[in-house]
């Protein structure tokens, strides 16, 4: 690399110092962020292999941009197969000793990592806002949410129990082992993570992996690598041994191929598009790896006539416009029963009109930019497709006057299920409104998709909540609530939205192997 990390830190400091915000407090915080990050050693611009910070072997780099300003904030290594293979070897070597630690010992390391993540909450949030664009308040929330997975699994590691099975005959004893002085961790894990939650999607995978005794090679998104590197730095500061956590970034196809082809990697965990997930699943078959996939969604939000209007509007607003609509559980189709449709549409429109768009460091902003130009063009094409098929734009429907990748919060009515806005995941700040008459019709429309990640229901009828929750073909259902993800509950979908679960006690099993042992001749004295 031709760029020195300290020089980047100075560039970051200059950029933040020049940034205008209406709040003096926020201005002072942004001016001091570079100093805080530099003092804590969090602003890393190299990959992590075997506990060492390294450049790409051929010196290639890739630029990291602030989507809110278009400015380059760093360059990081553009790595490929050679670096990934070395990271795999380091993880494999570290696995032998890390997996043999007791659960209590690994728990202490994870707890220390959690404490450091929370100690550096502000710096991590600033990094997230810089490279991803989400409002600073949301970024702070992500740090807490992401750290919570580390804390939860630091404790859950000590609660992995096996089973004793009733014997089939008097001279046998049957047991299922998950822990006998040690766990049976699956081995080296390749963790491929997205840009929309650059910290939480890492900790949700790495937390249970390390708790079980696995080691990891993390491949973060090229759009948001700085958060991943900062988290890895804190893992080192927590004393987690060298080689247990490795980070490579750059050439996604080459890195993916190295992870898939290696016999030392025994599991792939991925969050991202369904198309890429299918390729990874097919590639993992060559070495018969375990696979966990958290893929695309097409979340329906069902608002029934008997819903509390204020609760429904607030919950739907949160489910739709969080992170500028760039989450896999965002409400992608808002189905409103005809008896409440006009009232809901009016109230929802007023709420959306009040959403402030801008740089995430500006106080009061609730919607930042989209991640890149390709994301904006996708949103534009979906809106145009809907208009061409008879939909009406009630609000927004175009790029924001701020320019770059900002897009206006948008509400579209008269949407039909055959439009792209309803058929596919828009991943942007566009709320499509659809009408339905009966509960049966709503369920039919909601289930008319290959996706099955999240769904939302707003109703005050207790019986209906059970009926509809059971009928919806989704892995997650929010009832009168738009923000439902938490570290203590399982996260994952059905149909083409993925395989396996993350978070909760169920998430830790994804990183463990079971061993059945049958003891014979047990009647001998």
Automatic annotation (TrEMBL):
Source taxon at top rank: Eukaryota
GO CC, any one term: mitochondrial matrix
Subcellular location: Mitochondrion matrix
Catalytic site positions: 294
Domain Aldehyde dehydrogenase: 53-517
GO BP: gamma-aminobutyric acid catabolic process
InterPro entries, per database record: Ald_DH/histidinol_DH, Ald_DH_C, Ald_DH_CS_CYS, Ald_DH_CS_GLU, Ald_DH_N, Aldehyde_DH_dom, Aldehyde_DH_Superfamily, Succ_semiAld_DH
Pathway assigned in UniProt: Amino-acid degradation; 4-aminobutanoate degradation
Molecular functions (GO terms): succinate-semialdehyde dehydrogenase (NAD+) activity
Keywords: Mitochondrion, NAD, Oxidoreductase
This protein's name: Succinate-semialdehyde dehydrogenase
Organism: Rubroshorea leprosula
